[in-house]
Design goal:
This protein has one domain. It contains two helices and no strands. It starts with 5 loop residues before the first helix and ends with a helix. The longest helix is centred in the C-terminal third of the chain and has 46 residues. Helix 1 packs antiparallel against helix 2. Helix content is 88%, strand content 0%. It has 76 residues and is mainly alpha-helical.
């Protein structure tokens, strides 16, 4: 869970709670499709943020490796 900050965890919790409440109060009706759509968009945004964080961490690591190689090359 190192890629999820406190804000993301709060958004996940609130979004799921609101979806569960909508399911409980509205039941299985046509409006539930709208609620499910909103929930899925939120999940997609969270997944995209997670992938972005993983990729940026990997990119920073690779850039540090290149920087180290260039420093070693210039010191030689």
């Amino acid at each position: 869970m190192k890629h999820f900050d406190t804000g993301t965890i709060i958004v996940i919790t609130v979004t799921f709670a609101l979806f569960a409440l909508a399911l409980f109060f509205k039941g299985i009706t046509h409006d539930l499709l709208l609620e499910a759509g909103v929930f899925l968009v939120s999940v997609k945004l969270i997944i995209m943020a997670y992938k972005n964080d993983v990729m940026s961490t990997k990119l920073i690591q690779e850039l540090q490796e290149i920087k180290g190689l260039l420093k070693n090359h210039n010191d030689s």
